[in-house]
Amino acid sequence: VFSPVEMAPRDPILGLNEAYNADTRASKVNLGVGVYYDENGKVPLLRAVEAAEQARVAEHAPRAYLPIEGLAAYDQAVQKLLFGQDSPLLTANRLITAQSLGGTGALKLGADFLYRQTGKRLVAISNPSWENHRALFEAAGYEVVEYPYYHPATNGLDLDGMLKSIEALPEGSVVLLHACCHNPTGVDLSLTDWAKVIDVVQRRNHVPFLDIAYQGFGENLQDDAMAVRLFAESGLAFLVASSFSKSFSLYGERVGALTLVTANSEETAPVLSQLKRVIRTNYSNPPTHGAQVVAKVLTNPELYSLWEQELAEMRVRIKAMRQALVEKLQAAGVTQDMSFIQRQRGMFSYSGLTKIQVERLASEFGIYAVGSGRICVAALNQSNIEHVANAVATVLQE
Ligand code: LMR
Q1: Is-contact 177 213, C-beta < 8 A?
Q2: Do 41 and 90 lie in a common domain?
Q3: End of a domain among 301, 329, 356?
Q4: I need a labelling partner for 48 at 20 to 30 A (CA). Which of 148, 258, 305, 360 fits?
Q5: Active site residue 246
């Protein structure tokens, strides 16, 4: 039965962990996967998370099944974080949130739901986008096309190209948008840019699907949610995939959410009922631990402010690493202007390194980056940055 099965290619991001783990060099650095490491090169356990976990252990809570759509306190807390405490949507009966297996799980639920219930078959993603976006939507049966996004000459946004391309899509297409800290480029839209995107999406009757996996890593929790809130104000129906993997450093707990914003309250009950079927026929209902922890932090004012502070510490350290990288690249003899690294937001820098240069970084220096040239700035620290800057300077110069 298994004889026709051929080897699949290694995952372009998670596959790098395997190569990194197999590397025996002490100086190896993993700049591949989007994970925040602290100054000591460790994935942090946030103090707010630790406190919430201790409280939970002390409760000796039984492990019953959660509802199909997840823990109610968690789902409500997700909505407040995305739309703001005062959003009229919170009481308009137009929001459906389902706990999901990370942001990826949220995307898959949304993709399956739209495919089955609304007949959507075409999705447009940014060029470039997170590698798994294309793979995930293709696996869900979609044709995946791209809209221009990154302008290599300016290291910035190709807004014109993006708007024209979204305009030209068949009416009613699904348009996947990165709400903040674009993965992989770190290039985001301004508020006026977002207003233009909303205008074209609305005129073309497209279905916006917002992916927000890095809320809090750009400016702060509020500003990073501005795109979500502008869409909310527009009155459009849309979807949001969100994740606490990065912002709570809870990668392995798979804590995410899919939120659907319906056009009116009459749509809400049928949509929820069908979304529950998508979940039930896939993994039945979600796991408890991560959602309990996140809900505890988000609903307790002291833990919330501790978390906000810890999130700010991560953000500030990443920004410091961006600046240090630009300086050290210059000190290592790189003559190109690399200051764009400081303007990019979130965990990543789209470095401009070619696939061959990325391969050299791995083979000669034990430094692992994504083939697209994406490097995870959140994995740099005072001990490895010199090694990385010198290696990048070497591969850029030859
Ligand atoms: C990334 O882009 O590296 C992260 O979102 C992790 C992943 O699942 O790929």
Answers
A1: no
A2: no
A3: 301
A4: 258
A5: yes
List Cβ neighbours of 338 (8 Å cut-off, separation of 6 or more): 325, 326, 329, 330
CA 91 to chain centroid, in Å, comes to: 27
Does ligand 1 come within 6 angstroms of the Cβ of 132?
yes
For residue 358, pLDDT over 90 is answered with yes
Pick the atom of ligand 1 nearest to 370's CA: 3
Q: Is 307 a catalytic residue?
A: no
40 and 121: one domain? no
Query: Average pLDDT, whole number, for the chain?
Result: 97
pTM of the predicted model, to two decimals?
Answer: 0.97
Please write the tens of the pLDDT for every residue from 56-78: 999 998 899 999 999 999 999 99
**Annotated active-site residue in 75, 108, 120, 130:** 130
Look at residues 251, 276, 301 and tell me which one is the last residue of a structural domain. 301
Residues near 228 by beta carbon (within 8 Å), at least 6 away in sequence: 82, 83, 179, 210, 212, 240
Q: Is residue 231 part of a domain?
A: yes
Q: Cα(121) to centroid of ligand 1, in Å?
A: 25
34 lines ligand 1 (CB under 6 A): yes
Q: List b or e across 18-41, with b for residues whose CB sees 16 or more CB atoms inside 10 angstroms.
A: eebeebeeeebbbbbbbbbbeeee
| Ligand 1 atom showing the smallest separation from residue 14 Cα | 9
Mean pLDDT of 341-360: 95
CA of 318 to the centre of ligand 1 (A): 17
Kindly state whether residues 91 and 219 are assigned to the same domain. yes
ipTM of predicted assembly, 2 dp: 0.95
130 flagged as catalytic: yes
CB-ligand 1 contact for 130 (6 Å cutoff): yes
pLDDT tens digits, one per residue of 364-389: 999 999 999 999 999 999 999 999 99
Does the C-beta of 13 come closer than 6 Å to ligand 1?
yes
Residue with CA closest to ligand 1 atom 2: 34
Atom of ligand 1 nearest to the CA of 251: 6
**In this predicted structure, which of 7-21, 82-96, 275-289 has the lowest mean pLDDT?**
7-21
Query: Which residue of the set 211, 224, 296, 328 is catalytic?
Result: 211
List C-alpha distances in Å: 127 to 157, 196, 324, 374. Answer: 11, 18, 28, 13
Residue 262: per-residue pLDDT:
98
C-alpha to C-alpha distance for 38 and 47, rounded to whole angstroms: 13
The pLDDT confidence band at residue 398, using thresholds 50, 70 and 90, is confident
